């Protein structure tokens, strides 16, 4: 640092200054990202592990800024959450994912379900149900072709509110997945109250599955729980054939990960799809 306060606190740490500066730039630039059309979606195939066929895709947002370059969602989603810009970004993501899914439905892939991530702050916006309904209607996409991924943390923020919203989506025909399952507050009581479709095993439990006894026990527990609750299970972060073998051995039938495909631009997703579809 260049200067120090009496208490010995570093006031002008160049590194910190840089971090604060970057954060400030991100915040400012993010406000215009939607209108300047700097966001785009990639689609990661979700796979039936038994057949290798594509059952759907997760939409993952990317921000391509002219000067900052490609900014990862891990960097800008937290900023968008804190500033509230997540509402506009989330709305764009929802609409674009539905529009794109409709295009692929029209191309003959009516089985595809598109999954959209909804973060905590976005979840607490009271008219999210209306926004979902509008996005589906404008795209002409059936609600059954949409799945919303939310984290345990978002749900636990206000369980009664979550129950109300998820019931609205369920009544509409939209599926709900709990993302990163096992990493949040694991209160199993709330699970029974929610009209869920899917649990997603977090990639942190999948990574060491072939060697790790504990991770295998966690995965097994999630699968047993899902069976009791009659939920589907999707494993995230499948990177190797060994991951596939262990998961199939445990009775997990669905997954996604680099072993099959990275998140892909729309044209590449379509090519992958046509190579991995049963006639
Ligand atoms: P997530 O929802 O858990 O998404 C999975 C992340 O794991 C994605 O990172 C994906 O690219 C990555 N991934 C997929 N397969 C593998 C694999 O085999 N190995 C490894 N190591 N990683 C894999 P990404 O795209 O950088 O997104 C990071 C997080 O940002 C997401 O985590 C999600 O929480 C958030 N996010 C992404 N898109 C959106 C969005 O449109 N809206 C909101 N609210 N959040 C989003
Ligand atoms: Ca997700
Ligand atoms: Ca996840
Ligand atoms: Ca994650």
UniProtKB/TrEMBL annotation:
This is Diguanylate cyclase. The chain holds residues 422 to 700 of 701 of the full protein. It comes from the Bacteria. Residues 23-277 form the EAL domain.
């Amino acid at each position: 640092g260049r200067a120090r306060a009496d208490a010995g606190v570093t006031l002008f740490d160049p590194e910190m200054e840089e971090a604060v500066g970057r954060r400030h730039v991100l915040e400012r630039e993010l406000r215009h990202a939607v209108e300047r059309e700097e966001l785009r979606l990639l689609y990661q195939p979700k796979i039936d592990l038994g057949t290798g066929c594509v059952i759907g895709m997760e939409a993952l947002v990317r921000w391509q800024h002219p000067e900052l370059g490609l900014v990862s969602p891990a960097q800008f989603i937290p900023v968008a959450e804190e500033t509230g810009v997540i509402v506009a970004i989330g709305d764009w993501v929802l609409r674009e994912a539905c529009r794109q899914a409709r295009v692929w439905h029209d191309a003959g892939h009516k089985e595809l379900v598109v999954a959209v991530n909804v973060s905590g702050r976005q979840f607490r916006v009271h008219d999210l149900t209306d926004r979902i309904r509008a996005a589906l209607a404008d795209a002409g996409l059936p609600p059954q072709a949409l799945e919303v991924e939310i984290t345990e943390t978002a749900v636990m923020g206000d369980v009664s509110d979550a129950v109300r919203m998820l019931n609205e989506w369920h009544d509409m025909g939209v599926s709900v997945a709990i993302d990163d399952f096992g990493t949040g507050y694991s209160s199993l009581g709330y699970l029974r109250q929610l009209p869920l479709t899917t649990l997603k095993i977090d990639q942190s439990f999948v990574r060491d599955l072939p060697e790790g006894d504990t991770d295998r026990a966690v995965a097994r527990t999630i699968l047993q729980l899902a069976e009791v609750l009659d939920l589907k299970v999707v494993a995230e972060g499948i990177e190797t054939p060994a991951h596939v073998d262990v998961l199939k051995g445990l009775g997990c039938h669905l997954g996604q990960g680099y072993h099959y495909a990275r998140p892909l631009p729309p044209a590449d997703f379509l090519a992958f799809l046509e190579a991995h579809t049963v006639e």
